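DM from R.C. (forwarded with permission)

"hey, sorry to bug you on a friday — could you get me a structure for this? deadline for the figure draft is monday and I only need the backbone to look sensible"
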Amino acid sequence: MQTLKNTFLTCLGTLLFISACTQHPPLKTWETYDEGPEIVANAEHPIKRMRYKRLLSLSADRNALFAPFAKALTTFSTPEYEALKPLILEQNIPTLQEHIRSGSLSYEKLTLFYLYRMYHIEMDHQTFLNALISLNPNVLDEARSKDREFQQNQTVLPLFGMPILLKDNINTQGLATTAGAAAFSTNLPPADAFIVQRLKAAGALILGKVNLSEWAYYFCSGCPVGYSALGGQTLNPYGRKKFETGGSSSGSGVAVAANYAVAALGSETSGSILSPSGKNAVVGLKPTIGKLSRGGIIPISEFLDTAGPMTKSVLDNALLLNALIGHDPEDPFSYASEPIALDSLKNPSLKGRRMGYFTQYQKDSLYQNALTVLRNAGAELVAIDPPKVDFSGFRTLLSATMKNDLPAYIQKYAQAELPFTEVADIVAFNAQDSLLYAPYGQALFEGIVADTTSSASLEQLKVRLQKEARRYFDTPMKNDQLDLVLSINNYTAGYAAAAHYPALTVPMGFYPSGEPANLTFIAPAQGEQLLYIVAAAFEQKTHYRKPPNF
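My reply, with the result:
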């Protein structure tokens, strides 16, 4: 009997030992630290708005971000992650789908790879980028479901199972839509935005929400781009605290650059896709107004706003756009649109394309080099000096439209229990603790409250600004019979916004400092097909995009 008892105890001990050894190790714990020395170190930054007051959010729990994935993240090994890197990093959507068809990858592994990558970068004091605000807690289950569906039906849409990140002003069921603001931290919308519905219909996975310049950078004056109360200060992966991220779609640009997802969606009123795309060496499209629905997106201006894809390649960008287009009867600007002809991007030619370049940008070394590439590829380049136009009142347009359009969003698309009906309510909320909610002030929101522009004056202002913006582009385009014009990053974004003209921006290299920049192609309204052709040709000639060292 004693022998049997000893044997039982020995076995029990062995089982307990095995159990202890196979228990999942705990997740890394984010510990707050004194960011004061980093703030002081940036106090003399040559760019004033990079003289930060705060890096970390005081309103969010970083540990809670990854808690739903504790088991998966602690059992997914570093060797597995390293083995998947060549299959996933910098790969375009068709290549990822081919890896899945071949059996070397699955939608679950693809999603877990991105979660693991974000986890290790964002939980490290030396590498965090503050790119995230929330993650979809069900995304791994949804990825497994995609794997099962794929096994049953080998033919899938291009975006099927692809993890996509969304700027956190785009409504998504089950996730708060905050615009980065503490006031909207509990805004759980009752329905997906129209474009999110389109994404899901295409089979895409919503991986989570990314940081942004709070209220799409129409909140504080002269403040850092990429800062929000809920997300903290977004940092550029090519130079943390050294280079700006661009804004307001800061997290979208940073997340795509750092390979946190297959792609991301941003939004633009005036430069908010083009700027962070250029600052992070990613491809970004600001479409013609109305090509994509704005329904369910927190607005600045119904007259100017649009969502747009941000990706690592031109082809991926076109694929994402094709999934997003569709007529939304609830959006007065929305129209039915033909998809981009993807075959035209396989062997695109620049021969005979007439492009105007701005003489005022000629001293930029990367711009000059890009012009040489285009010229050598057969493009006909013409120096242009656009006419001087009357663009006064642009700020008034933004304030007057947001004063009307944000309350309209709250009434139609926000959570019913949200305790705000107008901008003044949010200003009052922030004033309760300005150090926490608005450390850089809320001058632009205060300006919105004070705005007294009449409806008639606003309509006249819209007509004048659009007329002037179109004259800015149309005069040289007509005089020199141009197909499109060439800019840098978001340098002419305001004119493109008011004109309702599309702009597609593509990496054009890095300055000696290591900072990236983009070449931006601008065409007349509904000229996206042409933009994709010339951008694809430029990309295939250069391959300038390089990932950051993470």
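R.C.: lifesaver. Residues 151 and 342 are 26 Å apart (CA to CA).
me: no worries. The longest helix spans residues 455-479.
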